[in-house]
Amino acid sequence: MNRKRGLISDTFKVKRIKTFSEKFGATNNNDAPMDIKSTLLDLMTLFPRKVFNDELPQIVIKHQLYSVHDDKTRVDRQLRQLREQGEILMFQLGFDADAFGLVFTADYKAKVLASQEGRETRGTVARFMERVLPACTDLSFNKDQMLKEFLFTDAEI
Q1: How far apart are CA 34 and CA 28, in angstroms?
Q2: 129-141: per-residue pLDDT in tens?
Q3: Beta bridge partners of 101
Q4: Burial class (CB in 10 A: 0-12, 13-18, 19+), 48
Q5: Closest by CA position to 59, among listed 69, 76, 46, 68
Q6: What is the DSSP-derived secondary structure letter of residue 22?
Q7: Do 132 and 145 touch, CB atoms closer than 8 A?
Q8: Which H or E run contains 101?
Q9: How far apart are CA 101 and CA 107, in angstroms?
Q10: Helix (H, G, I), strand (E, B) or coil at 76
């Protein structure tokens, strides 16, 4: 059976040449980023601080790291290590179970304390920052834990 026209045009048979974009973070000899912390620092420079009047700390979405690094397991391990060392905080964004925001702890503390300046709740917030944040690496806190373990009152919570 001979046809004058092929069933699949030549444009669909041509392989595209991949163009590589710039990789963020420190690189090893394979030109792949190896340090999650440096990648976080680079991605945080992309955060639009002026949109929020510089009232929020610079936030990176966890999926942004996945798009830069090929090995998701290594990303998760290094993020867990940074969380255990108290360098970063991870929190859930909205109701999506997969959307996590990453913030450096020092930036978070500075912005929160600056927002509480002149308020009567500043002492409670400062105590929360000193006691709870370094001691707990979970994503959330429950009321019983705050009352019994960290000795906060109902009024403070």
Answers
A1: 6
A2: 888 877 776 767 7
A3: 61, 91
A4: exposed
A5: 46
A6: P
A7: no
A8: strand 100-104
A9: 13
A10: helix
